[in-house]
Structure formats: C-alpha cells, structure tokens
Amino acid sequence: MPYSQFTLAQLQNFFYEQVDNNRSFWRTDEVTRILQESFRVFNCLTGFWRGQANAGLTTAGTHWYTVPNGITYPQRVLLNGAPLSVSSLYDLDYGQPNWESETCASGQLPSAWVVGGVNLFAIWPASFAGGESLVIEGVVAAPTLTTSGFVNLGQDELETILNYAEHIAQFKEGGQEFNASQELLKDFLKDTSSRNAILLQSNKFRTWMGLSDQRKRPMRIVDERVGSR
Amino acid sequence: MSVTDSYLINNIIYAILENGNADANGTLLTDMFTTTEIVNALDRVQQKFLLDTGLVVTHTTIAGVAGTPKYLTPADSIRPRRLTWSQPA
C-alpha cells in the first residue's frame, strides 16, 4: 500500500474510531501515549525505522566500540564507507579463539564485526593504526508523536499499530472487552512476524501465538494403563 | 530514544486509573499507591528486564596476576555473561 503522511490528530481520530469515539474514557493525552507505546513496540519487533550514525574513528588495537546514540540496535557497520562482514561472538570465540588479541597487519583493514549487545559491538581484527571511519546502520527510535509534523506510514502498518493500540487501551476497560482484544494482539503479532521471520523462531512468541504443537505431541503418554504398549 | 521518568510514571498513572478527570501529571488521585512505590516498581522491572535480556552490556578487562585463581567482578556487574582470555600484547 502507498505510504501516507499522518499527523498526530489524524492518528488519534483513527484510534477513537476503533473505540466508538469514547473520548471521555480515553483522554487525548492518554491516547497519544498509547499510540507512542504502539509505535515503539512495533519498531522493536520489526525494526521498521532505520537510519545510520557516525561512530567516530577506529583506535589502534581496540576491538570493542560503543554503539552511538540514536541507534537502538546495530545491523550493519561501514568502515571507511565499505561494509564489514557480520559475524557472531560464538563464531569468533570458537572459530578464532584469540580474536581479541589479533590486530591487522600494516596496510590491512578490519574485516568483520560482531554484536556484543544493543550498546556494544566489536570489530576483528583490531585496526593497526586507527583513524578509519566507523558508521553504524541500524534500527533507530520510533518517531516521537507531537502536535507538529507527520509520520510516514503505509496502510498496512497503520492498521497493525492501531490494532495493538486498541489492545493496550482495552486493558483499562478490562473484562470481556479486554478478552476480545486478544484477537487484535494476535493480529498484531502475526503482522509483525511477517516482517521479522526471527520472531517465528522464538519459543515465547510461538507460545503467545498458539503455534506451539507441544500439546499435540506430548513428551509422555499421559493415559498409560497396565498392559498398554 | 530518551524517555523520562515522569513520562513512565504518568503512563503508570493512566494504567492504574489514578489520573481522575485530568491528564496524568504525576499527581495521584487516591492514596492507594505512592509515587515512591511506582518508582520502585519501575526500578525493579527495569533491573529484571536487564537481567533477563542482557541487552545492555559493558566490557571490562581485568589484569591477570600470576598465581591468582580468583578475581572480583566489577562492583556494578549484575551478571557476567562471557569470559575470555586475552594474550598480552
């Protein structure tokens, strides 16, 4: 679907349309917070908003660097404008056990990077002389909703975010209304998993979505009887 | 992304219906919960989140001492996640 620009007032109106225009039970300020939370959760699950930030220059012999402000979690590292290969701590620890002691030879450049956490990454081998530029690309924070400006969203993303917003809003109402909104949560999770296949590999996520087939294949036969084989 | 303490507290105030007939502004309608209790709950959940996920990590080098088998972890360490041995340069 084509992308459109939405103001905060428009987003609030879309939300109120989903809750029978009940502007007394959900105040405007509260709706802004609910929408903001929905934007952030959606961004965490899908990495929808992306950007890049300058991480400064490499330092001779240094493997570990701090992820610059503005990047929620890194996805790609550019060294002197060229992308480094992505590896993992596990691969380096077990495939190159002394990697944290290894430095480039003169004239060589680091070749790989690994994620340490959302705030830390490492390059391998360490720079020989330092001074190469480091640029991080990754997921950035969801836009902050204010009364001025726009948010760019497609119709699909808008519906997904509004589903989650309605679900967390119904927590306030409780009872059957909240129970009924569980379907909206499932729709939201299903839509996010279509954008992020890693979610489907998560055991916790599969349990929430009812995708686990553990009940269909019990580890133990529960109705054992004498003589049964 | 920066979220202030007051932003979170006001979100909690909405969730527990303590805003009354006004926008949440840090004031609690009843004395069922105190602001201190809300802040303590946020602190506890934040610590548990960090402990469970290990999202925010720090990297510290401890100099080895000949013949010393045990070392202290940094004072602010919640849980060590990885220990490696680095050859001296």
Explain what you see.
The complex is a heterodimer of chains A (229) and B (89). Chain A has 229 residues and is of the alpha+beta class. Chain A has eight helices and ten strands. In chain A, strands 2-9-4-5 form a four-stranded antiparallel sheet, with no helix packed on it. In chain A, strands 3-8-7-6 form a four-stranded mixed sheet, with no helix packed on it. In chain B, α1 crosses α2. Chain B has 89 residues and is an all-alpha fold. The model of chain B has no long low-confidence stretch (mean pLDDT 89). The interface between A and B is medium-sized, with 23 and 21 residues.
N- and C-termini, Cα separation of chain A: 57 Å
| Largest interface: chains, residues each | A-B, 23 and 21 residues
Provide the residue-averaged pLDDT of chain B. 89
Strand percentage of chain B lies at under 5%
Tell me the fraction of residues in β-strands of chain A, as a range.
15-25%
Biggest sheet record of chain A: 4 strands, antiparallel
Strand order of the largest sheet of chain A: 2-9-4-5
How many helices of chain B in DSSP terms? 2
Question: Helix coverage percent of residues of chain A?
Answer: 25-40%
Oligomeric nature of the chains: heterodimer
Query: Ranges of chain B with pLDDT <50 over ≥5 residues?
Result: none
Enumerate how many helices of chain A there are, as a single number.
8
Number of strands of chain A: 10
